[in-house]
Known about the structure:
about 15% strand; seven-stranded mixed beta sheet; globular; binds pyridoxal-5'-phosphate; alpha/beta; four-stranded antiparallel beta sheet; Aspartate Aminotransferase, domain 1; about 375 residues; Aspartate Aminotransferase, domain 2
Amino acid sequence: MNITDNFYSLATPGVQRLVPYTPGKPIEELERELGLSDIVKLASNENPLGPSPMALAAIHASLPDLARYPDGNGFKLKRALAEKFSVEMSQITLGNGSNEILELLARAFLTPTHEVIFSQHAFAVYPIVTQAVGATGVVIPARAYGHDLDAMLAAVNDKTRLVFIANPNNPTGTLLASDELRRFIAALPSHVLCVLDEAYYEFIDPKSRADSIAWLVDHPNLIVTRTFSKAYGLAGLRVGYSFSNPGIADFLNRVRQPFNNNMLALAAAEAALADHEHLQRTIAINNDGMQQLIDGFRQLGLEWIPSAGNFVSVDVKRSGEGVYQALLQKGVIVRPVANYEMPDYLRISIGTPAENSRCLEALQAALADV
Ligand SMILES: *Cc1c(COP(=O)(O)O)cnc(C)c1O
Protein backbone atom coordinates (compact mmCIF):
# COMPACT_ATOMS: atom_id res chain seq x y z
CA MET A 1 0.00 0.00 0.00
CA ASN A 2 1.26 3.44 -0.88
CA ILE A 3 1.21 5.40 2.38
CA THR A 4 1.12 8.78 0.65
CA ASP A 5 -1.94 7.79 -1.39
CA ASN A 6 -3.55 6.40 1.70
CA PHE A 7 -3.16 9.66 3.60
CA TYR A 8 -4.48 11.51 0.58
CA SER A 9 -7.68 9.51 0.70
CA LEU A 10 -7.92 10.04 4.45
CA ALA A 11 -7.73 13.86 4.19
CA THR A 12 -11.04 15.72 3.92
CA PRO A 13 -12.04 16.70 0.35
CA GLY A 14 -11.47 20.40 1.05
CA VAL A 15 -7.99 19.76 2.40
CA GLN A 16 -7.08 17.46 -0.51
CA ARG A 17 -7.56 20.37 -2.91
CA LEU A 18 -5.79 22.96 -0.72
CA VAL A 19 -2.84 24.85 -2.16
CA PRO A 20 -0.59 25.99 0.70
CA TYR A 21 0.03 29.70 1.30
CA THR A 22 3.32 30.91 -0.24
CA PRO A 23 5.12 33.24 2.15
CA GLY A 24 7.76 35.79 1.15
CA LYS A 25 11.23 34.24 0.93
CA PRO A 26 13.04 34.57 4.28
CA ILE A 27 16.29 36.59 4.25
CA GLU A 28 18.22 33.74 5.89
CA GLU A 29 17.14 31.31 3.18
CA LEU A 30 18.50 33.52 0.39
CA GLU A 31 21.69 34.08 2.41
CA ARG A 32 22.16 30.30 2.61
CA GLU A 33 21.41 29.76 -1.08
CA LEU A 34 23.58 32.52 -2.55
CA GLY A 35 26.15 33.12 0.18
CA LEU A 36 25.11 36.78 0.02
CA SER A 37 24.83 39.22 2.88
CA ASP A 38 23.23 42.68 2.80
CA ILE A 39 19.96 41.32 1.47
CA VAL A 40 16.97 43.63 1.06
CA LYS A 41 13.57 42.02 1.73
CA LEU A 42 10.58 43.92 0.43
CA ALA A 43 8.33 40.88 0.17
CA SER A 44 6.02 40.66 3.18
CA ASN A 45 4.76 44.20 3.86
CA GLU A 46 6.76 44.42 7.09
CA ASN A 47 7.60 47.67 8.89
CA PRO A 48 11.03 48.90 7.70
CA LEU A 49 11.53 50.80 10.98
CA GLY A 50 11.21 47.60 13.00
CA PRO A 51 9.15 47.30 16.17
CA SER A 52 8.38 50.18 18.52
CA PRO A 53 11.06 50.63 21.21
CA MET A 54 8.21 50.68 23.72
CA ALA A 55 7.15 47.21 22.55
CA LEU A 56 10.69 45.94 22.97
CA ALA A 57 10.83 47.34 26.51
CA ALA A 58 7.52 45.66 27.36
CA ILE A 59 8.85 42.33 26.09
CA HIS A 60 11.95 42.72 28.21
CA ALA A 61 9.86 43.50 31.28
CA SER A 62 7.73 40.36 30.72
CA LEU A 63 10.58 37.90 30.36
CA PRO A 64 10.80 36.92 34.06
CA ASP A 65 7.14 35.83 33.94
CA LEU A 66 7.54 33.37 31.08
CA ALA A 67 7.03 30.31 33.29
CA ARG A 68 3.41 31.41 33.70
CA TYR A 69 0.62 30.98 31.19
CA PRO A 70 -0.42 34.22 29.51
CA ASP A 71 -3.74 35.88 30.33
CA GLY A 72 -6.03 33.77 28.17
CA ASN A 73 -8.54 36.63 27.97
CA GLY A 74 -5.96 39.24 26.97
CA PHE A 75 -7.57 41.67 29.39
CA LYS A 76 -5.03 44.48 29.23
CA LEU A 77 -4.68 44.49 25.46
CA LYS A 78 -8.44 44.36 25.03
CA ARG A 79 -8.88 47.21 27.49
CA ALA A 80 -6.33 49.32 25.57
CA LEU A 81 -8.04 48.54 22.24
CA ALA A 82 -11.49 49.26 23.69
CA GLU A 83 -10.33 52.65 24.94
CA LYS A 84 -8.54 53.62 21.76
CA PHE A 85 -11.38 52.65 19.43
CA SER A 86 -14.35 53.36 21.71
CA VAL A 87 -15.80 49.85 21.66
CA GLU A 88 -16.81 47.45 24.42
CA MET A 89 -14.27 44.83 25.45
CA SER A 90 -16.92 42.20 24.68
CA GLN A 91 -16.71 43.19 21.00
CA ILE A 92 -13.02 42.31 20.73
CA THR A 93 -11.47 39.00 19.73
CA LEU A 94 -7.69 38.55 19.81
CA GLY A 95 -5.97 36.22 17.36
CA ASN A 96 -2.55 34.76 16.67
CA GLY A 97 -2.28 37.22 13.81
CA SER A 98 -5.49 38.38 12.17
CA ASN A 99 -5.10 35.26 10.01
CA GLU A 100 -6.20 33.26 13.01
CA ILE A 101 -9.36 35.35 13.30
CA LEU A 102 -10.17 34.57 9.65
CA GLU A 103 -9.75 30.88 10.46
CA LEU A 104 -11.85 31.11 13.63
CA LEU A 105 -14.64 32.73 11.62
CA ALA A 106 -14.54 29.86 9.15
CA ARG A 107 -14.58 27.24 11.89
CA ALA A 108 -17.35 28.93 13.86
CA PHE A 109 -19.69 29.76 10.99
CA LEU A 110 -19.04 27.57 7.94
CA THR A 111 -20.03 24.03 7.03
CA PRO A 112 -19.64 22.18 3.70
CA THR A 113 -23.13 23.39 2.72
CA HIS A 114 -22.05 27.05 2.76
CA GLU A 115 -20.69 29.40 0.11
CA VAL A 116 -18.14 32.13 0.76
CA ILE A 117 -17.73 35.09 -1.57
CA PHE A 118 -14.44 36.84 -2.24
CA SER A 119 -12.83 38.70 -5.11
CA GLN A 120 -10.36 37.59 -7.76
CA HIS A 121 -6.85 38.83 -6.74
CA ALA A 122 -7.95 38.94 -3.08
CA PHE A 123 -5.83 37.81 -0.13
CA ALA A 124 -4.83 34.13 -0.46
CA VAL A 125 -5.90 33.18 3.06
CA TYR A 126 -9.63 33.52 2.22
CA PRO A 127 -9.76 30.48 -0.09
CA ILE A 128 -7.55 28.51 2.31
CA VAL A 129 -9.73 28.94 5.41
CA THR A 130 -12.86 28.38 3.31
CA GLN A 131 -11.67 25.14 1.74
CA ALA A 132 -10.14 23.83 4.95
CA VAL A 133 -13.63 23.53 6.46
CA GLY A 134 -15.11 22.14 3.25
CA ALA A 135 -17.12 25.24 2.32
CA THR A 136 -17.25 26.47 -1.28
CA GLY A 137 -15.41 29.60 -2.33
CA VAL A 138 -17.15 31.77 -4.94
CA VAL A 139 -14.58 33.96 -6.70
CA ILE A 140 -15.98 37.15 -8.26
CA PRO A 141 -13.97 38.63 -11.17
CA ALA A 142 -12.25 41.87 -10.17
CA ARG A 143 -13.02 45.27 -11.72
CA ALA A 144 -9.83 47.22 -12.46
CA TYR A 145 -8.03 44.96 -9.97
CA GLY A 146 -10.45 45.98 -7.19
CA HIS A 147 -13.55 44.40 -5.67
CA ASP A 148 -16.66 44.50 -7.89
CA LEU A 149 -19.18 45.03 -5.10
CA ASP A 150 -22.23 44.89 -7.38
CA ALA A 151 -21.18 41.52 -8.74
CA MET A 152 -20.37 40.28 -5.25
CA LEU A 153 -23.82 41.27 -4.04
CA ALA A 154 -25.44 39.61 -7.04
CA ALA A 155 -23.67 36.35 -6.11
CA VAL A 156 -25.29 36.21 -2.67
CA ASN A 157 -27.85 33.41 -2.30
CA ASP A 158 -29.39 31.27 0.47
CA LYS A 159 -26.18 29.25 0.82
CA THR A 160 -23.93 32.30 1.26
CA ARG A 161 -22.72 32.56 4.85
CA LEU A 162 -19.71 34.86 4.62
CA VAL A 163 -18.12 37.52 2.41
CA PHE A 164 -14.45 38.49 2.71
CA ILE A 165 -13.40 42.00 1.69
CA ALA A 166 -9.84 43.27 2.07
CA ASN A 167 -9.71 47.06 2.16
CA PRO A 168 -7.18 47.96 0.94
CA ASN A 169 -6.70 44.65 -0.80
CA ASN A 170 -3.45 42.71 -0.78
CA PRO A 171 -1.71 42.32 -3.28
CA THR A 172 -3.42 44.97 -5.45
CA GLY A 173 -3.55 47.83 -2.90
CA THR A 174 -6.95 48.90 -4.24
CA LEU A 175 -9.23 50.82 -1.86
CA LEU A 176 -13.02 50.91 -1.94
CA ALA A 177 -14.87 54.19 -1.53
CA SER A 178 -16.29 54.33 1.96
CA ASP A 179 -19.87 55.10 0.87
CA GLU A 180 -19.90 52.24 -1.67
CA LEU A 181 -18.64 49.85 0.96
CA ARG A 182 -21.25 50.92 3.46
CA ARG A 183 -24.02 50.53 0.89
CA PHE A 184 -22.79 47.03 0.13
CA ILE A 185 -22.80 46.01 3.81
CA ALA A 186 -26.27 47.48 4.30
CA ALA A 187 -27.58 45.51 1.33
CA LEU A 188 -26.37 42.12 2.60
CA PRO A 189 -29.07 39.86 4.02
CA SER A 190 -28.77 39.15 7.75
CA HIS A 191 -27.68 35.51 7.25
CA VAL A 192 -24.46 36.70 5.56
CA LEU A 193 -21.48 37.77 7.67
CA CYS A 194 -19.27 40.48 6.18
CA VAL A 195 -15.60 40.23 7.14
CA LEU A 196 -13.90 43.54 6.46
CA ASP A 197 -10.15 42.90 6.57
CA GLU A 198 -8.39 46.17 7.40
CA ALA A 199 -4.84 44.85 7.84
CA TYR A 200 -3.49 48.07 6.26
CA TYR A 201 -5.95 50.51 7.83
CA GLU A 202 -3.29 52.74 9.41
CA PHE A 203 -1.69 53.42 6.02
CA ILE A 204 -4.87 54.71 4.37
CA ASP A 205 -5.00 58.46 3.84
CA PRO A 206 -7.25 59.64 6.73
CA LYS A 207 -9.55 61.40 4.23
CA SER A 208 -10.30 58.07 2.53
CA ARG A 209 -10.70 55.83 5.58
CA ALA A 210 -14.01 54.10 6.18
CA ASP A 211 -15.49 54.70 9.62
CA SER A 212 -16.00 50.96 9.81
CA ILE A 213 -16.08 50.60 13.59
CA ALA A 214 -19.00 53.03 13.82
CA TRP A 215 -20.88 50.84 11.31
CA LEU A 216 -20.94 47.95 13.80
CA VAL A 217 -23.84 49.64 15.58
CA ASP A 218 -26.16 49.33 12.59
CA HIS A 219 -24.71 46.14 11.11
CA PRO A 220 -24.48 43.24 13.59
CA ASN A 221 -23.27 40.95 10.78
CA LEU A 222 -20.08 43.03 10.26
CA ILE A 223 -16.67 41.89 11.54
CA VAL A 224 -13.70 44.28 11.22
CA THR A 225 -10.26 42.66 11.45
CA ARG A 226 -6.96 44.48 12.02
CA THR A 227 -3.42 43.52 12.92
CA PHE A 228 -0.21 44.46 14.71
CA SER A 229 1.82 42.84 11.90
CA LYS A 230 1.97 45.72 9.45
CA ALA A 231 2.04 49.35 10.66
CA TYR A 232 2.81 48.31 14.25
CA GLY A 233 5.84 46.30 13.17
CA LEU A 234 5.14 43.14 15.18
CA ALA A 235 4.67 40.54 12.41
CA GLY A 236 6.98 38.08 14.16
CA LEU A 237 4.87 38.04 17.32
CA ARG A 238 1.53 37.27 15.64
CA VAL A 239 -1.18 39.52 17.08
CA GLY A 240 -4.38 40.45 15.29
CA TYR A 241 -7.82 41.44 16.52
CA SER A 242 -11.39 41.91 15.45
CA PHE A 243 -14.26 44.16 16.39
CA SER A 244 -17.72 42.67 16.03
CA ASN A 245 -21.06 42.16 17.66
CA PRO A 246 -20.46 40.58 21.13
CA GLY A 247 -22.50 37.56 20.00
CA ILE A 248 -20.04 36.86 17.19
CA ALA A 249 -17.07 37.43 19.51
CA ASP A 250 -18.60 34.92 21.92
CA PHE A 251 -18.60 32.18 19.27
CA LEU A 252 -15.05 32.98 18.15
CA ASN A 253 -14.01 32.74 21.78
CA ARG A 254 -15.50 29.24 22.01
CA VAL A 255 -13.47 27.80 19.13
CA ARG A 256 -10.12 29.44 19.79
CA GLN A 257 -7.29 27.86 21.75
CA PRO A 258 -7.34 28.96 25.40
CA PHE A 259 -3.94 30.72 25.16
CA ASN A 260 -3.80 31.71 21.50
CA ASN A 261 -1.76 34.87 22.16
CA ASN A 262 1.52 34.43 23.97
CA MET A 263 2.57 36.60 26.89
CA LEU A 264 5.26 38.57 25.05
CA ALA A 265 2.93 39.27 22.16
CA LEU A 266 0.19 40.60 24.44
CA ALA A 267 2.61 42.88 26.30
CA ALA A 268 4.28 44.15 23.14
CA ALA A 269 1.01 44.86 21.34
CA GLU A 270 -0.36 46.84 24.28
CA ALA A 271 2.82 48.95 24.39
CA ALA A 272 2.92 49.39 20.60
CA LEU A 273 -0.62 50.68 20.62
CA ALA A 274 0.48 53.54 22.88
CA ASP A 275 3.50 54.50 20.76
CA HIS A 276 1.92 57.18 18.58
CA GLU A 277 5.26 58.57 17.51
CA HIS A 278 6.46 55.27 16.07
CA LEU A 279 3.20 54.87 14.18
CA GLN A 280 3.44 58.40 12.77
CA ARG A 281 7.04 57.82 11.67
CA THR A 282 5.95 54.57 10.05
CA ILE A 283 3.21 56.28 8.09
CA ALA A 284 5.54 59.11 7.04
CA ILE A 285 8.30 56.80 5.81
CA ASN A 286 5.68 54.81 3.95
CA ASN A 287 4.25 57.84 2.16
CA ASP A 288 7.72 59.03 1.15
CA GLY A 289 8.80 55.54 0.09
CA MET A 290 5.66 55.03 -2.00
CA GLN A 291 6.45 58.24 -3.87
CA GLN A 292 10.08 57.17 -4.31
CA LEU A 293 9.08 53.82 -5.79
CA ILE A 294 6.46 55.19 -8.16
CA ASP A 295 8.85 57.93 -9.34
CA GLY A 296 11.31 55.12 -10.04
CA PHE A 297 8.71 53.04 -11.89
CA ARG A 298 7.83 56.06 -14.02
CA GLN A 299 11.47 56.52 -14.97
CA LEU A 300 11.64 52.85 -15.94
CA GLY A 301 8.51 53.25 -18.08
CA LEU A 302 6.50 50.89 -15.85
CA GLU A 303 2.89 51.13 -14.76
CA TRP A 304 1.61 50.27 -11.29
CA ILE A 305 -1.69 49.86 -9.47
CA PRO A 306 -2.22 52.88 -7.15
CA SER A 307 -2.02 51.46 -3.62
CA ALA A 308 -3.41 52.54 -0.26
CA GLY A 309 -1.18 50.09 1.63
CA ASN A 310 2.54 49.74 2.42
CA PHE A 311 3.25 47.91 -0.83
CA VAL A 312 2.68 48.45 -4.53
CA SER A 313 2.13 46.04 -7.42
CA VAL A 314 4.02 46.99 -10.57
CA ASP A 315 3.50 45.68 -14.11
CA VAL A 316 6.93 44.52 -15.29
CA LYS A 317 5.52 43.69 -18.77
CA ARG A 318 7.17 40.27 -18.84
CA SER A 319 7.25 37.23 -16.58
CA GLY A 320 7.10 38.48 -13.00
CA GLU A 321 8.66 35.18 -11.93
CA GLY A 322 11.62 35.81 -14.25
CA VAL A 323 12.21 39.32 -12.90
CA TYR A 324 11.74 38.02 -9.35
CA GLN A 325 14.48 35.42 -9.90
CA ALA A 326 16.81 38.03 -11.42
CA LEU A 327 16.22 40.31 -8.42
CA LEU A 328 17.03 37.45 -6.03
CA GLN A 329 20.43 37.09 -7.70
CA LYS A 330 21.01 40.75 -6.83
CA GLY A 331 20.02 40.20 -3.21
CA VAL A 332 16.58 41.82 -3.44
CA ILE A 333 13.52 39.80 -2.38
CA VAL A 334 10.12 40.96 -3.66
CA ARG A 335 6.90 39.01 -4.18
CA PRO A 336 5.83 37.39 -7.45
CA VAL A 337 2.02 37.28 -7.65
CA ALA A 338 1.32 34.76 -10.42
CA ASN A 339 -0.63 32.75 -7.82
CA TYR A 340 -2.97 35.77 -7.61
CA GLU A 341 -3.56 35.59 -11.38
CA MET A 342 -1.16 38.51 -11.91
CA PRO A 343 1.74 36.84 -13.74
CA ASP A 344 3.23 40.07 -15.14
CA TYR A 345 3.25 41.86 -11.78
CA LEU A 346 5.55 42.03 -8.80
CA ARG A 347 4.39 43.24 -5.40
CA ILE A 348 7.01 45.39 -3.69
CA SER A 349 6.76 46.42 -0.05
CA ILE A 350 7.80 49.97 0.84
CA GLY A 351 11.17 49.99 2.61
CA THR A 352 13.60 52.59 3.93
CA PRO A 353 14.86 55.14 1.36
CA ALA A 354 18.09 53.10 0.99
CA GLU A 355 16.17 49.82 0.52
CA ASN A 356 13.88 51.41 -2.06
CA SER A 357 16.91 52.72 -3.99
CA ARG A 358 18.57 49.29 -3.94
CA CYS A 359 15.36 47.75 -5.19
CA LEU A 360 14.93 50.25 -8.04
CA GLU A 361 18.55 49.85 -9.17
CA ALA A 362 18.25 46.08 -9.10
CA LEU A 363 14.94 46.30 -10.95
CA GLN A 364 16.47 48.41 -13.72
CA ALA A 365 19.28 45.85 -14.14
CA ALA A 366 16.89 42.89 -13.93
CA LEU A 367 14.58 44.32 -16.61
CA ALA A 368 17.60 44.59 -18.94
CA ASP A 369 18.44 40.90 -18.30
CA VAL A 370 15.01 39.26 -18.53
C1 LIG B 1 -0.91 40.70 6.19
C2 LIG B 1 -2.37 40.53 6.02
C3 LIG B 1 -3.18 40.04 7.04
C4 LIG B 1 -2.76 39.64 8.37
O1 LIG B 1 -1.71 39.11 8.77
P1 LIG B 1 -1.47 38.70 10.27
O2 LIG B 1 0.00 38.79 10.36
O3 LIG B 1 -1.99 37.30 10.40
O4 LIG B 1 -2.20 39.64 11.17
C5 LIG B 1 -4.54 39.97 6.86
N1 LIG B 1 -5.10 40.34 5.72
C6 LIG B 1 -4.37 40.84 4.72
C7 LIG B 1 -5.08 41.28 3.50
C8 LIG B 1 -2.99 40.92 4.83
O5 LIG B 1 -2.28 41.36 3.80
